[in-house]
What we know:
Elements: E1 7-10, E2 16-21, E3 24-29, E4 34-40, E5 45-50, E6 56-61, E7 72-77, E8 82-88, E9 101-104, E10 109-112, E11 116-120, E12 126-131
Antiparallel strand pairs: 1-2, 2-3, 3-4, 5-6, 6-7, 7-8, 9-10, 10-11, 11-12
Amino acid sequence: FFGRMPCVAFNQDQSQITQSCDIGFEVWSVDPPGRILECPVPGGVSIAEKHLRTNVFAVVGTGQNPAWPRDKVILWDHSQQEARGIISTFNSDAEFSAVCAVRLTDRHILVALESTTWVCNWQCERLYHIPTASNRHGLL
């Protein structure tokens, strides 16, 4: 894979690295080092987060004609090649707001927008939100 890399992230146990780019995403093993998964996505991926060592990813699209939108988190099951769920993200006045960052835990999915962080469960239900200061870089 080549291209711009908007997101590089370790999984929760730091055993693998997920890299998103303008043509999809890929996963690398830390020890031994090497690529273990390559997933082309038309339009590209701005965020790809892997859940532990499973085949489940939280993915956000990017580009001019993205396969996945920039304002939704897609829970992608790579082994089934299908979406397990979609988290629609809107700010408090229901206007478009691109996803800035996503983090996965065993119990929750955290979604950072520019001025709000949402806490969701694995059934893609929004549990609550936390208003924040401007957070364009999606620090969680």
